[in-house]
Amino acid sequence: MHFQTACRDGHSDVAFVATGTNLSLQFLPAGTLADGQRPLPGREFVDFEREPGMVHLKAPMILNGVCVIWKGYINLQRLDGMACLEYDEERARVRLLTG
């Protein structure tokens, strides 16, 4: 339940046991509201309805200076799953234009 609540709040920690890699992911676009509260993620970032017993997640991030999107799914019973990183061409283009 703690994992599901964290996902609904827009963040979670994920560990890749085989490589010893731990990531603290945020499942929403960068930015905050005027009152300092973070917006809740939409279904584009956290989707519990796509597949029963699974949550599909999407987290934009910068990894070693490269704009990427972490995309994955996690089984809600076993808390295991699969993920990949995809190059985020749109966000990289914006970063180049804004400096």
Automatic annotation (TrEMBL):
Coiled coil: none annotated. One of its GO terms (biological process) is regulation of transcription by RNA polymerase II. InterPro entries: CBF_beta, CBF_bsu_sf. It is found in: Nucleus. Keywords: Nucleus. Transmembrane segments: none annotated. One of its GO terms (cellular component) is core-binding factor complex. SUPFAM superfamilies: Core binding factor beta, CBF (SSF50723). GO terms for molecular function: sequence-specific DNA binding; transcription coactivator activity. Gene3D superfamilies: Core binding factor, beta subunit. Belongs to the CBF-beta family. PANTHER family: CORE-BINDING FACTOR SUBUNIT BETA, CORE-BINDING FACTOR, BETA SUBUNIT. This is Core-binding factor subunit beta.
